[in-house]
Amino acid sequence: MVNIVFKFFIAISCLLIFRGLLAEPLLDGADFDYGEYLSGQCLTCHQNSSDEGIPAINGAEALYIAKKLILYKNKELENEVMQLVAGALDKEQIASLAIYFNSLEK
Amino acid sequence: MNNLSRRSFVSFALASTSLLAMPAISTGSARPKVVVVGGGAGGATAARYIAKDSKGAIDVTLIEASKHYYTCFYSNLYLGGFRDYDSIGHSYDNLSANHGVNVVHDWAISVDSSARKVRLGSGATVSYDRLVLSPGIDIKYDSIDGYSVEAQTKMPHAWKSGTQVKVLRDQVLNMPKGGTFAMVPPPNPYRCPPGPYERISMVAHILKEKNPTAKIVVIDPKDKFSKQGLFMAGWEKHYPGMVEWIDNDTHGGIKNVNPETMEIETDLDTFKADVACVVPAQRAGAIAMNAGVTDGDWSPIVPASMQTKADSNIYVLGDASVASAMPKSGFSANSQAKVAANHIRGELTDSRVFPAKFSNTCWSLVATNDGIKVGANYKAGEEKIEVVDKFVSKTDEGNAKRKKTYEESIGWYNGITTDMFS
Question: Which of A79, B213, B215, B364 is the most buried (most CB within 10 A)?
Answer without folding.
Answer: B364
